[in-house]
Design a protein that fits this description.
6 helices; 6-stranded mixed sheet; 3-stranded antiparallel sheet; Deoxyribonuclease I, Chain A; alpha+beta
Length: 233
């Protein structure tokens, strides 16, 4: 299964080999504003159910969410808002935190219903100092603000596990780099792309990884492998 974020297009605007590659069920959720935000999901089978809304008009207008159900497994593909704002004044932080909190509440309800939840996406937050190359210089930058990191902490306290850190405790692992010249080559990055797993999925994890050598975007792919077969029934 593959989740993509910041698609910036509707399915009808994508090339056929991207919108509907052979052998995959696909679905895309677009923002009301053209050329902005959006998420997409590719799976080897059609889900039993698919949600794209949280029930809040403003939060739902930007095409940031897909929740696909496969048996007891609920895969949440999300593109969390950037809090910076157009003027780089952190003006979108309240909207970002509102999205975090509303989605966390929805995930809590899924888990209460017996679902095993895996959340993947661009969280637009570096959780700890180890998750960005220059933490001291970015303490007032959206993506590393105390309130954003505390919200991330709350997600983990609720029982979700950062799958990458489950296997790799060391520094220097990032998933996003500024497009300024030389930044990626010097690995001055941020780890803002995560796959969080509920306890049952964490027990089934086999490995988790980042692919910084894969170019074509300012982000790199993040992946996990786990035994999902018992959850798909």
């Amino acid at each position: 299964m593959v989740g993509v974020q910041e698609v910036r297009a509707r399915a009808t605007e994508l090339a056929a080999e991207i919108a509907s590659p052979e052998g995959y069920w696909t679905s895309f959720s677009a923002a009301e504003r053209a050329g902005y935000s959006g998420v997409g999901l590719y799976a080897k089978r059609e889900p039993d159910d698919l949600e794209t809304r949280l029930g809040d008009r403003e939060l739902d207008s930007e095409g940031r969410l897909q929740i696909a159900r496969f048996g007891r497994l609920a895969v949440v593909n999300a593109y969390f808002p950037n809090g910076s704002g157009r003027e780089r004044d952190n003006s979108r932080v309240p909207f970002k935190l509102a999205f975090y909190r509303a989605l966390h509440e929805r995930i809590g309800k899924l888990r209460q219903e017996g679902a095993c939840v895996v959340v993947l996406g661009d969280f637009n937050t570096a959780h700890q100092e180890i998750d960005l190359a220059r933490p001291k210089e970015n303490r007032t930058t959206s993506g590393f603000l105390p309130e954003e990191r505390e919200e991330f902490d709350r997600w983990l306290r609720s029982g979700l596990t950062d799958s990458f850190r489950h296997f790799e405790p060391g520094p220097g692992h990032y998933s996003w780099w500024s497009q300024r010249f030389g930044v990626r080559a010097r690995n001055i990055g941020w780890r803002i792309d995560y796959i969080l797993a509920c306890p049952e999925a964490t027990h089934a994890l086999r490995r988790a990884w980042l692919e910084p050598a894969v170019e074509g975007s300012d982000h790199c792919p993040a992946g996990v492998e786990f035994d999902a077969a018992p959850l798909l029934k």
